[in-house]
Amino acid sequence: MPYSVAIVVGSLRKDSFNRKIANTFIKVVPATLKPEIVEIGGLTFFNQDIEADPPASWVAFKSKIKAADAVLFVTPEYNRSMPGVLKNAIDIASRPYGLSAWDGKPAGIISGSIGAVGGFGANHHLRQSLTYLNMPAMQQPEAYLGSLAECVDAKGELLERTRQFIAKFAEAFAVWVAQHAQR
To answer: How far apart are alpha carbons 145 and 17 in whole angstroms?
Structure first.
């Protein structure tokens, strides 16, 4: 039975480069993984005042994360960090204290940017959170995709070299998940 992978995309833009990366991952992933994008756009801001009676969007999101065997984060970089919407999603599924949906789930990170550095800052800030959340994050291969505007063709599709890189990452991630998933 394949391992289920929740893909959390840190960009809300419908046609974002990072969503294209996530969709490409879904197409090239080995059969041992069953990935699905778990949307974060409908989540309201985390507020501890409503934590005892959370909105339906929080409950649904947290349930999807809890049900997954692993998590892949695909994120852009905003101001040398992860986007606020991604941090908000992490906070929502980690609460209340002691009932985190993230706990123990193997994780992978692909960061992408139109800049040359490929989202390095976002990738590493996210890794800091994953350490606290007790999520073993795959170390190698690292996935920083820079100059993303140059990685698409005239139709806006990812170039073959980028698809091949994502496929190699997906193969390594499948091994990581098999080694670390808690079923």
So the answer is: 10
Tokens 């994502």 belong to residue? 166
Q: What token pair was written down for 106?
A: 């193997």
**Residue 128 zone, left/alpha/beta (φ > 0; ψ -120 to 50; rest):** alpha
Residue 141 makes CB contacts below 8 A (sequence gap 6+) with 168, 169, 172
pLDDT at 36: 98
Domain that holds residue 151: 3-180
Secondary structure letter of residue 46 according to DSSP: P
Strands (E), 10-102: 33-37, 70-75
Residues (pLDDT < 70) of the chain are none
Cα torsion for 15, 16, 19, 20, to the nearest 10°? 70
74: domain CATH number?
A: 3.40.50.360
Only one residue has tokens 């998940």, namely 177
Q: Do residues 17 and 112 touch, judged by C-beta distance below 8 A? A: yes
Q: Give the C-alpha distances (Å, rounded to integers) separating 28 from 23, 37, 57, 109, 128.
A: 9, 14, 29, 16, 28
pTM summary value: 0.96
